[in-house]
Amino acid sequence: MNVLVDTSVWSLALRRAQRDLNLTERAIVVELSELINEGRARIIGLVRQELLSGIRDSRQFAKLQELLRAYADEPIATADYELAAMMGNQCRSRGIAVSVSDMVICGVAQSRNWSIFSTDPDFSRYATALHCKLHEVRK
């Protein structure tokens, strides 16, 4: 099964110094590397934009931009956005606050039967209402 990797995971691997990561974060980066090696890691343009946003140094931006170009964006269709909106409505009806970008990730993953790899605790809350599949670090 493919895995849609959220900004939080890519950021640990590509924007943080490895020496600054704790053991849990290092395990997450290793898991991402394994998913990449298996050809299962996926990205969407929205995640790419989040990763590239806020970088002030143009050389650092260009370096990250070049690294990310190795990964093609998964195309997002109108039906994915409609599903994301429906999923957001389901969460809100259960009192769960959502962000539009998180719902796009949930919608894309669900429509393709993929899991989501994230360190963002919001996805665990979404999963209770949406039955999203969350990817965990394998032992």
Explain what the structure shows.
This protein is mainly alpha-helical and 139 residues long. It has a single domain, classed as Rossmann fold (3-Layer(aba) Sandwich). The relative contact order is 0.19. Helix content is 58%, strand content 6%. The chain contains seven helices and three strands, in the order E-H-H-E-H-H-H-H-E-H. The model has no long low-confidence stretch (mean pLDDT 96). The longest helix has 16 residues, at 78-93.
In short, what is this structure?
With 139 residues, this protein is mostly helical. 58% of the residues lie in helices and 6% in strands.
How are the secondary structure elements laid out?
Blueprint: E1 3-5, H1 7-14, H2 23-37, E2 41-42, H3 45-52, H4 58-68, H5 78-93, H6 100-112, E3 115-117, H7 122-130
Parallel strand pairs: 1-2, 1-3
